[in-house]
Amino acid sequence: MKHYYFAGENMGSQQHSHKHEDKKTIKINCGGDRPERETAAFRAVSSEIQRIDEIDTFYKVLFQEEQFDIGNIYNANNSTFVPRRSGVYYVAGTVTFVPDAQELAYRVRVEIRVNGVSVAADNDYWGEFSPFVNAVNVNTILQLEAGDLVEVFVTSTTPGRLTENAPSFSTRFEAAEF
Prior knowledge:
The chain has about 180 residues and is an all-beta fold. Helices cover about 0% and strands about 50% of the residues. Strands 4, 5, 7, 10, 13, 15 and 16 form a seven-stranded antiparallel sheet that branches.
C-alpha cells in the first residue's frame, strides 16, 4: 500500500474516496482487488512492406517487430494477440497505405477481428491524387476471454502496399488491459 501525504485541512469524504487514518496520511490501494498484478500490454510494428494486390480482398496485417510485450500476450510469428486473462482491453491497429496508382479514388478498410469475427472497423476514402499517405486507424475497448485470438485485417479497392513503421509512417498493433 502506498502512502500519500497532503498539507492543509482535513478533506471530507464528499471530496474524495480515499481513507484517512489521520490528518496527514491518505492511504491508497493502487492495486484494488488485484494487488501486485502486472498489467498486460504490447505494441508491435511492421518492419516490412506488405503488398495488397487483390482488390476487395481481406489481408491479415503483419506486425513482425515487438516493441514490448508485458505478460507475453503477443505472438510476432503470426501477428496475433492472445490475452492470458479474461478482462477488458483497449485494442488498436493502424496501417499506412500507399496506392499503386495515386490518380484514382479508393477506399481502405481496417478491421479488428476476435476469433475470426470483425468487432471493430474503420474506413478511409481518398479522392484523386493526394500528396499525403493514407493512415487508417481502428481502436476499441473489448471484453475478451483468455485464449481469444485478436488480429488486424485490411482491404482496399485498389492495389498498393502497407508501409513498414517509420518516423513518418505508422503501421502498428497494440493492446493494454484495464
